């Protein structure tokens, strides 16, 4: 468990003696268990202390039980990945892969890592799905205090069940793996010990088409003699509440949870023991009275089952589980990192409201749950925990924005002196907790927030001299954590938590600067492909539940924007190969409905520039701009995939849409229809205007901002483009004014009023009106935080050229300005870590840059005198590893080889 959102370890180039490979991955994951492909991709990153150093050649060997199964041989390539090229790998097998890299001087260094395969074939599964059998145990609730506290919605939720299987091992254990999944949520244990650290497994996918299974190593938990494996099974997304349709128990996929698992034990003599879920498993209700992702969880410590998953336990009153058979046709191996607890957040204050009732402030809005220490309670004492993001003016908990989500947990004490309560099958979005019924004095030491999110590897950090900007970046980061819970959701607190497609595609570039989200979005995109209609339309939310809308502009365009963005950032062509049919069918769908190339028809919900302020961006303009963008990316994907005819056809279509857009929406003065900020930003960002029209559009954009006293009006579709476009066209000062603004509407306004995450609405709370509309008012939502991309790319200056893939051709172009005196960032590209730091002091600008092996960079050094720039105390023209290019009036420009550079120049 990490203690903060920190970058993964990477070698310091200054401490190395030569070219070094690190962060070895299989299928973009670190030493994964149970991969589902027989030909995985193996990748690595590079670091070196020497300027100009690069990988001259590499060699990969894959081994099984010490024997070689594939040798790539030495390959004279710069690539930092290779697909396994030997015979297909075999199921349920551990592999070691060894990497050697050679620099131009012939020096070789080596590293190795491991991975294991899962079950490749359906007939390898012996497990059956099991569930609670109402015929053998129709009365599923224990007759203990049936007047327990529940809301109406909570009363519809059946208690989670405990399942166990005792078995004998007559030989020692050399390796043991559990392959497990559920229709619902599960948590496994073996011989009294929890298995793994994963939470909310198996995660949320479109269960109608695919259910992920996880693989766990339990070798050290088993022994000769009696052993027990067990699991607790809850409702989760499968049969619990999802979205706002809570008139009844939602049951979007099924009516009750089911478990499937297979333990495979290998013995030193080569034999194998398999213990799989079937009718021989027994089950019992336990202390968890109900558990639901939206509604909360109730735990009665008086009903604890003791060491129920340990040998020697008396399970005489447990009943057989219902055996549903072994249909495994929807099973897939997990492809992305699971949800985990990644951080503990201690309470910062406790306020006593009245006798036995407290308000606890964690100081940070987060997604997760509370771990509560209970001291001095008597048996039967009930403690209620209500969760909320904000407090009302009188200091009470604000919960109106939760809508029908109860977000309430209960703990009933067994009177054991000191007890701990932490739910396992629910997640809340909250900063504050109202704790009611606590006997004695509650202190900050008794309450800890447990942060839950998909454990995507941290990829980037940004810091600067302005604490307001640092707080903004922190808010963006916490918004990402709180909403990347198995899928990219819109909010973690209310009765929604859905994977809205526009939110995801708009925020993706910012998300990728902060974390390695390739497998996270690839996994989500598979469900997008599954949900595409026969006509080619894409639903508004993925996985597809609740809404019946398909084909909304900017939302459905995630079909093209997400895969192309992932390819550009991570350089894995397989993303495009998988997505190509989806991309093509989507743009063809829009084209068929709009043969005049202005997207007016089949626009579904058409939300426009969602949550813009005081203006209405023309919806046909927005839709047509996105139509052009999708066609552009589809043509680009076709070129990468070698589909020359399709590339030409979609390229020609893009030109025609561009011409139609100008004819329809641009007037003689260069104004865009509607004259809104987003109306100008979209064609400027998407390349739909010629040079003359560009300059006019920029002029009108700036004029609008000035008329509004440098205040923004952009909603979801425009906000990510605002600061980058202003900076691109020479108005970085205006972008900085927006960054530092703390008037309504602005990022700074929410921060001034205590925000620790990005709000869904600019008017989530205002001094004039208090809380915004309760029908839609999340205080943890990442969309308006898409300005984070600009902080990394333009403030810190880490980006790549338009033609670059996988950050191989870097553009280092920081833009000092605003109130900042320094800024720095680090980012883990596919080839290695890049870092920048600039500082203004005493009339001098210093710029430090590190470029990883495998990449080159064009560096733009802001200066008042391009001729005076020095690197390492020497004139730029004589610096090792640099080639000076033609400067501009305000920047010195050079091409740089890998290495670390220190530039100085008059500011």
TrEMBL record:
Domain Alpha-L-rhamnosidase C-terminal intervals: 797-872
SUPFAM superfamilies linked: Six-hairpin glycosidases
InterPro entries in the record: 6-hairpin_glycosidase_sf, 6hp_glycosidase-like_sf, Alpha_rhamnosid, Bac_rhamnosid6H, Bac_rhamnosid_C, Bac_rhamnosid_N, Ig-like_fold, Rhamnosid_concanavalin
Catalysed reactions, semicolon-separated: Hydrolysis of terminal non-reducing alpha-L-rhamnose residues in alpha-L-rhamnosides
Domain Alpha-L-rhamnosidase concanavalin-like as annotated: residue spans: 352-453
Top-level EC class: hydrolase
Keywords on record: Hydrolase
EC number annotated for this UniProt entry: 3.2.1.40
A matching Pfam family: Bac_rhamnosid_N
Top-level division of the source organism's lineage: Bacteria
Domain Alpha-L-rhamnosidase six-hairpin glycosidase: 459-795
Signal peptide: none
Name of this chain's protein: alpha-L-rhamnosidase
Organism expressing this protein natively: Kribbella karoonensis
Classification lineage: Bacteria, Bacillati, Actinomycetota, Actinomycetes, Propionibacteriales
């Amino acid at each position: 468990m990490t203690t903060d959102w920190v970058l993964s370890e990477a070698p310091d180039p200054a401490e190395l003696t030569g070219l070094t490979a690190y962060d070895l991955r299989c299928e973009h994951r670190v030493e994964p268990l149970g991969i589902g492909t027989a030909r995985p991709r193996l990748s690595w990153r590079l670091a070196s202390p020497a300027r100009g150093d690069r990988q001259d050649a590499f060699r990969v060997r894959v081994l099984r039980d010490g024997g070689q199964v594939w040798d790539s041989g030495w390959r004279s390539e710069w690539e930092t990945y290779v697909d396994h090229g030997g015979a297909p790998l075999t199921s349920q097998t551990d592999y070691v892969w060894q990497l050697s890299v050679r620099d131009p001087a012939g020096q070789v260094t080596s590293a190795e890592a491991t991975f294991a395969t899962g079950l490749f074939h359906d007939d390898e599964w012996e497990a059956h799905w099991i569930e609670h059998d109402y015929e053998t145990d129709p009365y599923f609730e224990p007759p203990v205090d049936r007047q327990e506290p529940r809301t109406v919605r909570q009363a519809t939720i059946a208690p989670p069940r405990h399942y166990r299987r005792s078995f004998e091992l007559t030989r020692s254990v050399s390796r043991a793996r559990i392959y497990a999944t559920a229709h619902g949520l599960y948590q496994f244990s073996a011989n009294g010990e929890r298995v793994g650290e994963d939470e909310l497994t198996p995660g949320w996918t479109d269960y109608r088409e695919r259910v992920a299974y996880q693989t766990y190593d339990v070798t050290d938990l088993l022994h000769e003699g009696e052993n027990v494996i067990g699991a607790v099974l809850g409702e989760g997304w499968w049969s619990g509440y999802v979205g706002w349709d809570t008139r009844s128990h939602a049951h979007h996929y099924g009516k009750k949870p089911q478990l499937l698992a297979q333990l495979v034990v290998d013995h030193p003599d080569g034999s194998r023991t398999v213990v799989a879920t079937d009718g021989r498993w027994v089950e019992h209700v336990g202390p968890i009275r109900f558990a639901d992702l939206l509604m909360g969880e109730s735990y009665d410590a008086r009903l604890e089952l003791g060491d129920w998953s340990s040998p020697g336990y008396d399970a005489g009153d447990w009943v057989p589980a219902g055996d549903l058979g072994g249909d495994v046709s929807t099973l897939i191996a997990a492809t992305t990192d699971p949800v985990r607890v990644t951080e503990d957040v201690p309470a910062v204050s406790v306020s006593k409201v009245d006798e036995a009732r407290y308000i606890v402030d964690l100081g940070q809005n987060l997604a997760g749950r509370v771990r509560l220490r209970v001291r001095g309670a008597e048996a039967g004492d009930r403690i209620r925990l209500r969760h909320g993001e904000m407090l009302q003016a009188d200091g009470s908990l604000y919960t109106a924005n939760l809508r029908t989500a109860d977000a309430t947990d209960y703990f009933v004490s067994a009177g054991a002196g000191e007890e701990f309560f932490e739910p396992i099958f629910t997640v809340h979005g909250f900063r504050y907790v109202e704790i009611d019924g606590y006997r004695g004095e509650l202190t900050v030491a008794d309450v800890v927030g447990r942060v839950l999110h998909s454990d995507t590897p941290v990829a980037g950090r940004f810091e600067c001299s302005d604490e307001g900007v640092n707080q903004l970046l922190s808010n963006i980061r916490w918004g990402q954590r709180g909403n990347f819970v198995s899928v990219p959701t819109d909010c973690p607190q209310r009765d929604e938590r859905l994977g809205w497609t526009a939110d995801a595609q708009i925020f993706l570039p910012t998300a990728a600067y902060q974390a390695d989200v390739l497998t996270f979005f690839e996994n989500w995109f598979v469900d997008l492909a599954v949900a595409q209609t026969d006509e080619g339309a894409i639903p508004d939310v993925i996985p597809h539940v609740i809404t019946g809308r398909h084909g909304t502009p900017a939302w459905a365009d995630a079909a093209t924007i997400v895969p192309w963005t992932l390819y550009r950032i991570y350089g894995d062509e397989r993303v495009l190969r998988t997505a190509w049919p989806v991309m093509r069918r989507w743009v063809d769908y829009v084209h068929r409905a709009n043969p005049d190339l202005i997207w007016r028809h089949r626009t579904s919900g058409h939300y426009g520039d969602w949550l813009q302020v005081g203006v209405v961006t023309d919806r046909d303009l927005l839709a047509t701009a996105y139509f052009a963008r999708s066609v552009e990316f589809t043509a680009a994907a076709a070129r990468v995939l070698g589909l020359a005819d399709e590339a030409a056809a979609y390229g020609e279509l893009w030109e025609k849409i561009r011409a139609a857009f100008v004819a329809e929406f641009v007037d003689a003065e260069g104004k865009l229809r509607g004259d809104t900020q987003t109306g100008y930003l979209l064609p400027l960002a998407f390349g739909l205007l010629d040079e003359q029209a560009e300059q006019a559009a920029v002029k009108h954009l700036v004029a609008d901002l000035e008329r509004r006293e440098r205040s923004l009006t952009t909603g979801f579709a425009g906000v990510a483009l605002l600061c980058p476009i202003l900076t691109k066209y020479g108005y970085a000062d205006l972008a900085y004014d927006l960054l530092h603004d703390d008037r309504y509407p602005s990022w700074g306004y929410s921060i001034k009023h205590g925000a620790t995450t990005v709000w869904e609405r600019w008017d989530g709370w205002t001094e004039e009106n208090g809380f915004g509309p309760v029908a839609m008012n999340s205080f943890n939502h990442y969309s308006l935080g898409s300005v984070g991309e600009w902080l990394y790319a333009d403030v810190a200056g880490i980006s790549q050229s338009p033609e670059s893939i996988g950050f191989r051709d870097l553009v280092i172009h920081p833009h000092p300005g605003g109130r900042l005196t320094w800024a720095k960032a680090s980012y883990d590209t596919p080839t290695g870590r890049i870092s920048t730091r600039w500082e203004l002091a005493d009339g001098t600008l210093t710029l430090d840059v590190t470029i990883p092996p495998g990449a080159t960079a064009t560096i733009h050094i802001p200066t008042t005198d391009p001729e005076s720039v020095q690197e390492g105390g020497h004139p730029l023209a004589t610096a090792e590893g640099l080639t000076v290019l033609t400067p501009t009036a305000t920047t010195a420009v050079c091409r740089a080889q890998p290495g670390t550079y220190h530039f100085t120049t008059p500011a």
